[in-house]
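[Automated response] Your request has been received and processed.

Submitted sequence:
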Amino acid sequence: MTPEESMGVNFNDSKLKPKYYTNNGKDLFDRFEEGLMTAEQNRGFYIGNVFKYITRYQNKNGVEDLQKASTYLNRLIAFETKANRTDSEKMTEFWANTFKNWQKAGDIRDSRTD
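Generated structure:
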């Protein structure tokens, strides 16, 4: 369970993460991390938004701004965790995804299911 879920916050049905930010199952965070921005730009984006929402929460939106800050902090943690994986883990994920894409395209079959 995520910290947000434990607080009863559902980001999929909330104004904290509106559906109009999602396209083809990917939100802006996903697009940023997939290369729309560099790693340093991603870090700056997340850190800047954490600071923004924490510093204004008492004078603007209260708990809602703290929840938004939490969203950006959790995304930063996930981003850094992913960035710090070993090369072996990255290669394993790369080949697993490549294999899945080949299967979807019909280029190969999974002999385990034949």
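Summary generated for your ticket: Helices lie at 3-6, 28-36, 39-56, 63-83, 87-105. Strands lie at 22-23, 26-27.
If you did not submit this request, please reply to this message.
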